[in-house]
Amino acid sequence: MENKYKLWLARDFCGILYAYFNKPIRDTVYKEWDSDKVSLSIDDSFFPELKWEDEPIVVELRPAITDLEAKAQEYADSVTDNEEIKELIINAFKAGYNE
Questions:
Q1: Do 97 and 3 touch, CB atoms closer than 8 A?
Q2: Separation of alpha carbons 39 and 2, rounded Å
Q3: What 3-state class would DSSP assign to 31?
Q4: What gap in Å lies between CA 56 and CA 19, rounded to an integer?
Q5: d(Cα 26, Cα 59) in Å, to the nearest integer?
Q6: Sign of the CA dihedral 66, 18, 7, 57?
């Protein structure tokens, strides 16, 4: 599973905030941003400092795991009963998430 996702954020002329999978290009005729990948409208209150006049910004999203240790232990327990292997799995799980 990929642990992080890169999205581009840009605000259109009307103030609507969009997220894009590829860096969008400003369309000054229609006063919007164009991209060859799907865009998503997101809550306008996010990134209030980002304006139409600004260039798009890139953000990185990661899945939220509130208790990484517990998730790692749960996974290791589901795979094996061997304590040494469990410890290896937990360490690998945590290292892979934090890359």
A1: yes
A2: 20
A3: coil
A4: 9
A5: 18
A6: negative
Picking from 69, 75, 76, 65, the residue whose alpha carbon sits closest to that of residue 94 is 69
What is the DSSP secondary-structure string of 61-96? E----S-HHHHHHHHHHHH-S-HHHHHHHHHHHHHH
pLDDT per position in the chain (99 positions), as tens? 456 789 999 999 999 999 999 999 999 999 999 998 777 888 989 999 999 999 999 998 877 766 778 888 888 899 899 999 999 988 887 777 654
60-to-9, 19, 56, 57 alpha-carbon distances in Å = 11, 11, 13, 10
Q: Name the nearest CA neighbour of 82 among 94, 90, 71.
A: 90
Q: Are 25 and 33 in contact (CB under 8 A)?
A: yes
